[in-house]
Amino acid sequence: MTQSSAQQMTAAREDTLSTYVTDKDIVQYQTDGVVVIRGVLDTAQIDALREGVEGVLGSLGAHSDEYETNGKGRFAQDMFMWKRKDRIGDIFRDTVLYSPLAAVAGALMQSQKISFLYDQMFVKEPGTANPTPWHQDLPYWPFKGDQICGIWCPLDPVDLSSGGMKYVKGSHRSGKWYAPRHFGGDDKAYDGAQGDVMPDIEKLARPDELASWEMNPGDCIVFHGLTIHGSGGNTSLSRRRRAVSLRWAGDDVRYDARPGAYPFPNDGLQDGQALGTTLDYPTVWRSASK
Ligand SMILES: O=C(O)CCC(=O)C(=O)O
Fold first, then answer.
1. Rounded to two decimals, what is the model's pTM?
2. Which of 81, 160, 165, 222 to mutate to test the pocket of ligand 1 (most atoms within 8 A of CB)?
3. What ligand 1 atom has the least distance to the C-alpha of 120?
4. Does pLDDT of 186 surpass 80?
5. For a Cys staple, 214 with which of 136, 159, 176, 208, CB 3.0–4.6 Å?
6. C-beta pairs of 174-180 under 8 Å, 24+ apart in sequence
Protein backbone atom coordinates (compact mmCIF):
# COMPACT_ATOMS: atom_id res chain seq x y z
CA MET A 1 0.00 0.00 0.00
CA THR A 2 1.36 3.47 -0.88
CA GLN A 3 1.68 6.13 1.81
CA SER A 4 -1.05 8.25 0.23
CA SER A 5 -3.57 5.38 0.08
CA ALA A 6 -2.78 4.60 3.72
CA GLN A 7 -3.41 8.26 4.54
CA GLN A 8 -6.68 8.20 2.59
CA MET A 9 -7.75 5.09 4.48
CA THR A 10 -6.97 6.73 7.82
CA ALA A 11 -8.90 9.86 6.82
CA ALA A 12 -11.88 7.80 5.68
CA ARG A 13 -11.88 5.95 8.97
CA GLU A 14 -11.75 9.20 10.96
CA ASP A 15 -14.77 10.47 8.99
CA THR A 16 -16.56 7.23 9.72
CA LEU A 17 -15.78 7.71 13.36
CA SER A 18 -17.39 11.10 13.63
CA THR A 19 -20.38 9.65 11.75
CA TYR A 20 -20.98 6.79 14.15
CA VAL A 21 -19.68 7.63 17.62
CA THR A 22 -20.90 10.66 19.57
CA ASP A 23 -19.55 12.13 22.81
CA LYS A 24 -22.67 10.72 24.49
CA ASP A 25 -21.78 7.22 23.26
CA ILE A 26 -18.29 7.58 24.73
CA VAL A 27 -19.69 8.61 28.12
CA GLN A 28 -22.21 5.76 28.01
CA TYR A 29 -19.51 3.21 27.13
CA GLN A 30 -17.26 4.47 29.92
CA THR A 31 -20.12 4.62 32.51
CA ASP A 32 -22.22 1.57 31.66
CA GLY A 33 -19.51 -0.53 30.03
CA VAL A 34 -21.87 -1.09 27.09
CA VAL A 35 -23.40 0.97 24.28
CA VAL A 36 -25.28 0.23 21.06
CA ILE A 37 -24.04 1.90 17.87
CA ARG A 38 -26.49 1.79 14.97
CA GLY A 39 -25.84 1.18 11.28
CA VAL A 40 -22.09 0.60 11.46
CA LEU A 41 -21.81 -2.24 8.94
CA ASP A 42 -23.09 -1.69 5.41
CA THR A 43 -25.09 -4.15 3.32
CA ALA A 44 -22.03 -5.53 1.54
CA GLN A 45 -20.25 -6.15 4.87
CA ILE A 46 -23.35 -7.80 6.37
CA ASP A 47 -23.82 -10.02 3.31
CA ALA A 48 -20.16 -11.02 3.35
CA LEU A 49 -20.32 -11.92 7.06
CA ARG A 50 -23.48 -13.95 6.46
CA GLU A 51 -21.66 -15.85 3.71
CA GLY A 52 -18.73 -16.33 6.10
CA VAL A 53 -20.95 -17.62 8.91
CA GLU A 54 -22.75 -20.07 6.59
CA GLY A 55 -19.35 -21.33 5.48
CA VAL A 56 -18.22 -21.77 9.08
CA LEU A 57 -21.44 -23.62 10.00
CA GLY A 58 -20.61 -26.09 7.24
CA SER A 59 -16.98 -26.53 8.26
CA LEU A 60 -16.43 -25.73 11.92
CA GLY A 61 -12.83 -25.18 13.02
CA ALA A 62 -10.65 -26.56 15.81
CA HIS A 63 -11.94 -24.06 18.40
CA SER A 64 -15.66 -24.61 17.75
CA ASP A 65 -18.46 -25.97 19.94
CA GLU A 66 -21.95 -27.30 19.37
CA TYR A 67 -23.77 -26.52 22.63
CA GLU A 68 -27.25 -27.80 21.80
CA THR A 69 -27.45 -31.49 22.61
CA ASN A 70 -31.21 -32.05 22.94
CA GLY A 71 -31.86 -32.19 19.23
CA LYS A 72 -33.88 -28.95 19.19
CA GLY A 73 -32.37 -26.08 17.26
CA ARG A 74 -28.62 -25.50 17.14
CA PHE A 75 -26.25 -23.32 19.16
CA ALA A 76 -22.87 -23.27 17.43
CA GLN A 77 -19.77 -21.29 18.25
CA ASP A 78 -16.46 -20.88 16.44
CA MET A 79 -13.40 -18.64 16.80
CA PHE A 80 -10.33 -17.38 14.91
CA MET A 81 -12.08 -17.42 11.52
CA TRP A 82 -9.77 -14.57 10.38
CA LYS A 83 -6.87 -17.00 10.45
CA ARG A 84 -8.43 -19.41 7.96
CA LYS A 85 -6.70 -19.69 4.60
CA ASP A 86 -9.93 -19.84 2.59
CA ARG A 87 -12.61 -17.37 1.41
CA ILE A 88 -14.07 -17.38 4.94
CA GLY A 89 -10.73 -16.11 6.27
CA ASP A 90 -10.73 -13.34 3.64
CA ILE A 91 -14.20 -12.22 4.73
CA PHE A 92 -13.30 -11.96 8.41
CA ARG A 93 -9.93 -10.30 7.68
CA ASP A 94 -11.69 -7.75 5.45
CA THR A 95 -14.15 -6.98 8.26
CA VAL A 96 -11.27 -6.43 10.68
CA LEU A 97 -9.29 -4.23 8.29
CA TYR A 98 -11.88 -2.33 6.26
CA SER A 99 -15.06 -1.99 8.37
CA PRO A 100 -15.41 0.92 10.82
CA LEU A 101 -15.37 -1.48 13.82
CA ALA A 102 -11.72 -0.89 14.83
CA ALA A 103 -12.23 2.88 14.67
CA VAL A 104 -15.42 2.61 16.72
CA ALA A 105 -13.51 0.63 19.36
CA GLY A 106 -10.71 3.24 19.33
CA ALA A 107 -13.12 6.14 19.81
CA LEU A 108 -15.13 4.53 22.62
CA MET A 109 -12.07 3.31 24.52
CA GLN A 110 -10.25 6.62 23.90
CA SER A 111 -7.23 4.74 22.59
CA GLN A 112 -4.55 5.99 20.19
CA LYS A 113 -4.29 2.59 18.55
CA ILE A 114 -6.25 -0.63 18.33
CA SER A 115 -4.96 -4.19 18.09
CA PHE A 116 -7.23 -6.98 16.94
CA LEU A 117 -7.59 -9.90 19.36
CA TYR A 118 -9.86 -12.40 17.62
CA ASP A 119 -13.25 -13.05 16.07
CA GLN A 120 -16.01 -15.37 17.27
CA MET A 121 -19.31 -16.53 15.85
CA PHE A 122 -22.48 -17.45 17.77
CA VAL A 123 -25.45 -18.95 15.96
CA LYS A 124 -28.74 -19.85 17.67
CA GLU A 125 -31.09 -21.40 15.17
CA PRO A 126 -34.90 -21.08 15.64
CA GLY A 127 -36.18 -23.06 18.61
CA THR A 128 -32.82 -23.26 20.41
CA ALA A 129 -33.46 -23.26 24.16
CA ASN A 130 -29.83 -22.85 25.30
CA PRO A 131 -29.12 -19.59 27.02
CA THR A 132 -25.70 -17.96 26.83
CA PRO A 133 -24.66 -18.11 30.49
CA TRP A 134 -23.94 -14.83 32.27
CA HIS A 135 -20.19 -14.18 32.14
CA GLN A 136 -17.44 -11.61 31.73
CA ASP A 137 -15.08 -12.05 28.76
CA LEU A 138 -11.75 -10.83 30.14
CA PRO A 139 -11.31 -13.74 32.58
CA TYR A 140 -11.29 -16.05 29.51
CA TRP A 141 -8.61 -14.00 27.74
CA PRO A 142 -4.81 -14.00 28.35
CA PHE A 143 -4.72 -10.22 28.50
CA LYS A 144 -5.00 -7.50 31.11
CA GLY A 145 -5.87 -3.82 30.84
CA ASP A 146 -8.86 -1.51 30.78
CA GLN A 147 -9.02 -0.62 27.07
CA ILE A 148 -10.34 -3.98 25.95
CA CYS A 149 -13.74 -4.65 24.41
CA GLY A 150 -15.92 -6.87 22.28
CA ILE A 151 -18.22 -5.71 19.48
CA TRP A 152 -21.27 -7.95 18.99
CA CYS A 153 -22.85 -7.71 15.54
CA PRO A 154 -26.11 -9.54 14.79
CA LEU A 155 -26.62 -10.68 11.22
CA ASP A 156 -30.41 -11.10 11.67
CA PRO A 157 -32.95 -8.74 13.26
CA VAL A 158 -32.87 -9.65 16.95
CA ASP A 159 -34.84 -9.02 20.13
CA LEU A 160 -34.86 -10.71 23.51
CA SER A 161 -37.15 -13.50 22.30
CA SER A 162 -34.69 -14.52 19.60
CA GLY A 163 -31.60 -14.40 21.80
CA GLY A 164 -30.77 -10.68 22.03
CA MET A 165 -27.89 -9.93 24.39
CA LYS A 166 -28.36 -8.52 27.93
CA TYR A 167 -25.69 -6.59 29.85
CA VAL A 168 -25.35 -5.58 33.51
CA LYS A 169 -24.75 -1.84 33.37
CA GLY A 170 -21.66 -0.65 35.24
CA SER A 171 -20.51 -4.20 36.07
CA HIS A 172 -17.11 -3.49 34.43
CA ARG A 173 -16.37 -1.17 37.36
CA SER A 174 -17.55 -3.50 40.15
CA GLY A 175 -14.01 -4.71 40.86
CA LYS A 176 -15.32 -8.27 40.60
CA TRP A 177 -13.67 -10.94 38.51
CA TYR A 178 -15.76 -14.07 37.83
CA ALA A 179 -14.15 -17.42 37.04
CA PRO A 180 -14.46 -18.54 33.40
CA ARG A 181 -16.81 -21.50 33.04
CA HIS A 182 -17.72 -23.80 30.18
CA PHE A 183 -20.86 -22.93 28.18
CA GLY A 184 -23.49 -25.42 27.08
CA GLY A 185 -24.98 -26.97 30.17
CA ASP A 186 -21.71 -28.29 31.59
CA ASP A 187 -20.93 -25.09 33.45
CA LYS A 188 -17.75 -26.39 35.14
CA ALA A 189 -15.08 -23.76 35.79
CA TYR A 190 -12.00 -23.87 33.53
CA ASP A 191 -9.07 -25.75 35.09
CA GLY A 192 -7.12 -23.37 37.30
CA ALA A 193 -9.70 -20.61 36.83
CA GLN A 194 -9.43 -17.71 39.23
CA GLY A 195 -12.36 -15.61 40.47
CA ASP A 196 -15.76 -15.79 42.10
CA VAL A 197 -18.75 -17.86 41.04
CA MET A 198 -21.16 -15.77 38.94
CA PRO A 199 -24.27 -14.96 40.99
CA ASP A 200 -27.78 -15.64 39.64
CA ILE A 201 -28.09 -12.40 37.66
CA GLU A 202 -31.56 -13.33 36.37
CA LYS A 203 -32.81 -13.42 39.96
CA LEU A 204 -30.73 -10.61 41.46
CA ALA A 205 -30.61 -7.83 38.85
CA ARG A 206 -33.35 -5.19 38.80
CA PRO A 207 -34.71 -4.51 35.28
CA ASP A 208 -33.19 -1.01 35.30
CA GLU A 209 -29.74 -2.50 35.94
CA LEU A 210 -29.82 -4.39 32.64
CA ALA A 211 -29.30 -3.06 29.11
CA SER A 212 -30.63 -4.71 25.96
CA TRP A 213 -31.72 -3.52 22.54
CA GLU A 214 -33.77 -4.62 19.58
CA MET A 215 -31.28 -4.57 16.74
CA ASN A 216 -31.00 -4.85 12.99
CA PRO A 217 -28.07 -6.19 10.99
CA GLY A 218 -25.50 -3.39 10.78
CA ASP A 219 -26.07 -2.30 14.40
CA CYS A 220 -23.52 -3.39 16.96
CA ILE A 221 -23.06 -3.50 20.72
CA VAL A 222 -19.69 -2.45 22.10
CA PHE A 223 -18.96 -3.75 25.59
CA HIS A 224 -16.03 -3.72 28.00
CA GLY A 225 -14.21 -7.00 28.66
CA LEU A 226 -15.45 -7.03 32.25
CA THR A 227 -19.11 -6.17 31.57
CA ILE A 228 -21.31 -9.08 32.64
CA HIS A 229 -23.47 -10.32 29.78
CA GLY A 230 -25.59 -13.24 28.63
CA SER A 231 -28.69 -14.04 26.59
CA GLY A 232 -31.70 -16.33 26.50
CA GLY A 233 -32.31 -18.97 23.88
CA ASN A 234 -33.87 -18.28 20.51
CA THR A 235 -37.55 -18.98 21.24
CA SER A 236 -38.58 -17.81 17.78
CA LEU A 237 -39.49 -20.70 15.52
CA SER A 238 -38.89 -18.74 12.34
CA ARG A 239 -36.06 -16.28 12.94
CA ARG A 240 -32.40 -17.27 12.95
CA ARG A 241 -30.00 -15.52 15.29
CA ARG A 242 -26.58 -15.32 13.71
CA ALA A 243 -24.00 -13.02 15.29
CA VAL A 244 -20.30 -12.33 15.18
CA SER A 245 -18.27 -10.82 17.99
CA LEU A 246 -14.92 -9.15 17.32
CA ARG A 247 -12.54 -8.32 20.15
CA TRP A 248 -10.22 -5.33 20.33
CA ALA A 249 -7.45 -4.01 22.56
CA GLY A 250 -6.21 -0.46 23.12
CA ASP A 251 -3.03 1.19 24.38
CA ASP A 252 -3.00 -0.16 27.94
CA VAL A 253 -3.55 -3.87 27.19
CA ARG A 254 -0.74 -6.34 27.95
CA TYR A 255 -0.34 -10.06 27.40
CA ASP A 256 -1.11 -12.02 30.60
CA ALA A 257 -1.24 -15.81 30.22
CA ARG A 258 -2.68 -16.56 33.64
CA PRO A 259 -3.91 -20.05 34.68
CA GLY A 260 -7.52 -20.64 33.71
CA ALA A 261 -7.50 -18.43 30.60
CA TYR A 262 -8.39 -20.01 27.23
CA PRO A 263 -5.26 -21.21 25.37
CA PHE A 264 -5.03 -18.45 22.76
CA PRO A 265 -2.46 -18.58 19.95
CA ASN A 266 0.71 -16.70 20.80
CA ASP A 267 3.60 -16.24 18.39
CA GLY A 268 6.03 -14.79 20.88
CA LEU A 269 4.39 -12.38 23.33
CA GLN A 270 5.79 -12.50 26.85
CA ASP A 271 3.71 -11.74 29.95
CA GLY A 272 3.47 -7.99 30.42
CA GLN A 273 4.31 -7.23 26.78
CA ALA A 274 2.27 -4.73 24.73
CA LEU A 275 0.34 -6.02 21.70
CA GLY A 276 0.82 -5.10 18.07
CA THR A 277 4.34 -6.39 17.50
CA THR A 278 3.36 -9.95 16.55
CA LEU A 279 1.13 -11.39 13.86
CA ASP A 280 -1.36 -12.99 16.24
CA TYR A 281 -2.54 -9.62 17.64
CA PRO A 282 -1.79 -7.02 14.95
CA THR A 283 -2.35 -3.29 15.30
CA VAL A 284 -5.08 -2.50 12.78
CA TRP A 285 -6.00 1.13 13.49
CA ARG A 286 -4.29 4.30 14.68
CA SER A 287 -5.95 7.56 15.62
CA ALA A 288 -5.24 10.34 13.14
CA SER A 289 -5.16 12.83 16.03
CA LYS A 290 -1.55 11.96 16.86
O1 LIG B 1 -24.00 -14.37 21.10
C2 LIG B 1 -23.97 -14.91 22.19
O3 LIG B 1 -24.89 -15.59 22.61
C4 LIG B 1 -22.79 -14.72 23.10
C5 LIG B 1 -22.00 -13.49 22.83
C6 LIG B 1 -20.92 -13.25 23.82
O7 LIG B 1 -20.91 -13.78 24.90
C8 LIG B 1 -19.86 -12.35 23.44
O9 LIG B 1 -19.89 -11.79 22.35
O10 LIG B 1 -18.92 -12.19 24.26
1. 0.94
2. 165
3. 9
4. no
5. 159
6. 174/226, 177/136, 177/138, 177/139, 177/226, 178/135, 178/136, 178/139, 178/228, 179/139, 179/260, 180/135, 180/139, 180/140, 180/260, 180/261, 180/262
